[in-house]
Design brief:
The structure holds 3 protein chains of 3 kinds.
Chain A (H helix, E strand, L loop, with lengths): L24 H34 L15 H11 L10 H18 L17 H9 L1 H12 L3 H32 L4 H6 L6 H4 L1 H14 L25 H26 L9 H22 L5 H29 L8 H19 L10
Helix pairs in contact in A: 1-10, 1-11, 3-4, 3-5, 3-10, 5-6, 6-9, 6-12, 9-10, 9-12, 10-11
Chain B lengths: L7 E5 L11 E7 L2 E8 L7 H4 L9 H5 L6 H16 L5 H30 L4 H21 L8 E2 L2 E2 L7 H23 L3 H7 L7 H6 L5 H5 L6 H4 L20 H24 L19 E9 L2 E9 L7 E5 L1 H5 L3 H5 L4 H11 L3 H5 L1
Antiparallel strand pairs in B: 1-2, 2-3, 4-5, 6-7, 7-8
Helix pairs in contact in B: 3-4, 4-5, 4-11, 4-14, 5-6, 6-11
Chain C lengths: L7 H14 L24 E3 L9 H5 L5 E10 L2 E10 L8 H5 L5 E3 L14 E2 L19 H4 L8 H4 L8
Antiparallel strand pairs in C: 1-4, 2-3, 3-5
The chains are: A mainly alpha, B alpha+beta, C alpha+beta.
Chain lengths: 374, 367, 169
Amino acid sequence: MAIANSGLINLGNPQTLPPDWPGGFWWHWVLFTIVIIAVVIVMVMAFIYMARRQIGRMQSRVGPNRTGPFGLIQPIADVLKVLLKEGIEPANVDKPVYWLAPIVALVPVFVIFAVVPFTDGGMLADLNIGILYVVAISSISTVGIFMAGWGSSNKFSLISAMRVVAAVVSYEIPVVLSIAGVLLLVGSLSMNDIVLAQQDTPFILLQPLGFIIFFIAGLAEISRSPFDLLEADSEIVAGFHTEYSGIKFALFYLVEYGEAFLLSCLITTLYLGGWRGPALPEWLWFIVKAVLVWFVMVWLWATLPRVRIDQLMALAWKFLLPLALINLLITALQVLALPEGSLWIMIPINFALTAVLILVWSKLFKLGWGRVEV
Amino acid sequence: MAIKTEPFVLNLGPVHPSTHGVYRMRVTLDGEVVVDIEPVVGYLHRGIEKLAEERTYTGVIPLTDRLDYISSMSNNLAYVLAVEKLAGIKVPERAEYLRVIMAELQRICNHLIAVGSFFNDCGAYFTPFLHMYREREKIIDLFEMVCGQRLTYNYMRIGGVSQDIPEEFLPALEKLLEQIHRSVDEFDLFLKENEILLARSRGVGILTKEKAINCSITGPVLRASGVGWDLRKADPYSVYDRFEFDIPTGSAGDCYDRYRVRIEEMRQSLRIIEQAVKQLPSGPVKAEVPHLVRPPAGDAYAHIESPKGELAVYLVSDNSIAPYRCHIRPTSLLNLSALRDMVIGWKIADLIIIFGSIDICLGEVDR
Amino acid sequence: MKFERYGLGIGKGLTVTLKHLFRHPTVSQYPEQRLHTSRRIRGNELVWDRQKCTGCATCAKTCPQGAIEIITSTDLVENKYVVEKYQVDFGYCIQCGLCVEVCPYGALFMGYAYERAQYRRSELVENKEDMMLESGKKQPSGYFYPEIAAKLPRQTLLVEKITEEAPWE
């Protein structure tokens, strides 16, 4: 398994399967499957709890604090409630589409976690095409959401499904381009190598513009505020999951927060240095960084109003896409021009360029149409 | 090859998270663009005007509480002014000043709810809404101190107000005024220059000056379109001609201007309350009026500047203890008459925002 | 939209929300911490003083809802008319307080309690035995009676309680 070394960062020993697993490959596979499912479900519940408490304090009230000490059992109570509810199904839904939609939306979320590194080499499979696998599989959930919108035989859900498809497809491109900027610095597609390459500086310092673009585009992909118009509950009642209740709704809820956890893990891996950190165990640093990213996401959710669909599309195509291309160009030039080991020169140059570009771009363009003549 | 599309009808039904009450709209959409809307009202009709004919003049006051249930003091005031005009009753000075203080506090409460709900429709997930409700709690505590209830006050009476203020009212009011000044400044810091809010509401749902005047729009919606018409200055009732205050007007008539007009009106109301507290005289709070008032036969029309617009009561009496006819000019219903023209050509998200910025209350629309 | 101030407006909003994270929440945990209601609260009950009531039925005539039912017989006991039946249906009562205002003898008071929900509508109807002041179980509120209001606890006001500054402000 050859890794192309760009010469800019010395990667050390290439990682293969950990050779000292007793029983070899299959035990590793079973153990990590169980670990991934457990970790994802526990972290989703922790994220839900944390979001509710944090939003409560930001709105000058307390979050849930009655179920258990400090409300810690609240997520478990929510899960029990949702599982015990009656699954009401409208009469003229398109049955196969309606029943399969939650599963098609949920499975990709779990499958991507196979390549997320929790510690050094601690993942289900250290694929050498790691990040490409992530980008490819993450698009499958959108099909599930569209199936839900169509199969519900409800006009509100159909509007929401159309919005979802338009938005997710548009935001894939800035996501991929900003990831490409990171890959130029690393030289390898494997997720563990990306973390190993951040020995001296985390990539958020080397690629500030890429980080901003990836964060905004990622928020829009998973339809979190300020881009949560895909399931905006003050306009289109609940979007694509209006007609779902009971276990199917629980699966959609899991998809939403699972994708949020996934985005936090990806940001930690790509930009914040993954499991790197001084004193604590490595997986704990990973969790701490993911929680920090989630804190920022909840902070944005509590504060900002939402954008409109044409403003969302204009943001993707007119603002993020050109900036992502320029970011890629600048990173490529720097990788070619600077000698190895002098990465720190990139930091002030990149910050200055980010500030200039955002100022210039903000002045230049207009987002969204106005009134349409009817 | 062009794709054939056809518009479809969406029913934003009576039960919807962001129609402010039970208001139904059948919207014809072409994709996301609104082509036509057809409002259906009447889901909250309780027959208040008919019930008013069966109660005594004092017994109608609890009914008027429930018209525009968010600003009950203003409704009470409009009805009581109509009866006093008909019967020729003079109200003592202290009662007039207390009425002004209550009406202006009620205006602040109403605008807090209006702006909070507007942001909720914009999508800010309840945060500005809850901050504004916290300020409203402070005002409602004062109302509870005076009249015993938090929502349906039943405070104004024919000939004055029902009880005098207790002695802890004025110190609490002083503390409240400075806290609300600071909170309104904090709301401005939070939301006035928010780019997403500007993008969603600037230039959206424009109501031109001519159309506003032609459709009998009144209240903050009219003032945001550029017409400086406020009944407290144009036709002063009660003792409003003794206070100095400005009338904020907007220029563009879009949703952002309506939001700004409401915030500035809150500041002007604080000014009026400070002046009223300084000038508050002592004396009786209610004229000597019998419980069963019998106004002479005739009719009277009294209008006030309620927080939502011009609220008026037209009262016809035939010298008995119950009104012969009591008609209420429904501010919100008339403000909604321009909704169709404001909304056509915009998208569903804009429809919700424009509807929220008109600030209606279904109790008034359907009576 | 134009980012006229380069995202600064959004930044200011974010600082406001962050400051709220460190402030005291405006919450009282209901069954354990109860706030003192107003002294003049128009609570969900009526308190009737049998000694002062003469059975004139002014309250029943004034009630806008017609919730009070009163039957007075003309037998004289201790030189006062006997009130045989005094029944109030709290399902109809809107707690407007007009009956309390209008009583010429000061025999009717609004109640101070507000947590009086029942499971059946028929349990909301109260007769004179339940509403009597002399039983000692009912607390009248100070609505229209300042001497009673002076003895009740002071109202909890939000303007006095919650501080809205973060510790460093």
